[in-house]
Amino acid sequence: MPGLFNTVTDMATFDLDAYFARIGYVGPRTPALATLHAVTLHHTAAIPFENLDVLLDRGISLEPADVFRKLVHERRGGYCFEQNFLLLSALEALGFAVTPLSARVRWQRPRAETPPRTHLFVRVDMADGTWLTDAGVGGLSLTAALRFEPGLEQPTPHEPRRIVREEGRYFHQALLGGAWHDVCEFTGEEMPVIDREVANWWTSTCPQSRFRQRLTAARALRDGGRLALLNREFTVRHADGRSETRMIDGPEALLAVLAEHFGLHFPAGTRFGPPGSPWPT
Fold first, then answer.
1. Burial class (CB in 10 A: 0-12, 13-18, 19+), 258
2. Catalytic annotation on 128?
3. Distance of alpha carbon 146 from its chain centroid, rounded?
């Protein structure tokens, strides 16, 4: 699709100052591993994962100016195609060698099911090897990059992670409650612009898409906790493993939770989801 960044030359106009102000990052701007880890954490903690424009039938534009305006200037969140495109663009502007990769999200799906290949994440090639980062997988978005080394358990500021290879596929997994859970499945295949456009269209418009069927928002906390919103359930997960869930009792209470905990502000009276419903059930 014309206009989408594909080369380092195109990144000359990327506003790193505005992006860093948005995520609260004031550290070094060298393409080093410490920078990669720090930018990943700051991005995931500052910019919430959310699908609210899908439920408002506003459409999801992947044009660079639109993504930047929405997530940076308007201080909104987004889902993987927006989140990881912005992250990839920032890393490229910093001088990292980055590649957009495609994946299938497997969180809470059985291995027998084949979900659509509608996830975008980022490969980063460095002198010491290849790393993966992902700010767009909801309540399990990475808060540190992962070394692309199958079988290696890796700590992050949040859950331990690993990459395993089984039956010719890679699986990104998180250690939760003493067990490893699939987050996504991938082959290492690059996701070119046209594939992102097609997957984004399906994700944001198809009635069978999970993003058309439920409201979701998530944000990592710098102390190791996480915030998650799924329809009427708001959950705070603490760094020590404790979690607290409460039900949201009305549409105005939902707007208050979005504003207070996710920094997402909408006019009073905003309703998400089908006519007659404040948000999907």
1. buried
2. no
3. 15
pLDDT band at 13 (very low <50, low <70, confident <90, very high): confident
The active-site residue out of 37, 42, 43, 134 is: 134
134 is catalytic: yes
- What is the band of 273 on the pLDDT scale with cuts at 50, 70, 90? confident
**Which residue among the candidates 119, 158, 182, 184 is catalytic per the annotation?**
119
Per-residue pLDDT tens over the stretch 105-157: 999 899 989 999 999 999 999 999 999 999 999 999 999 999 999 999 999 99
Q: What's the mean pLDDT in 161-175?
A: 96
**Which positions ≥6 away from 51 have C-beta within 8 Å?**
79, 211, 215, 216, 217
CA distances from 73 to 68, 115, 148 (A): 7, 33, 33
Choose the catalytic residue: 42, 80, 158, 184: 80
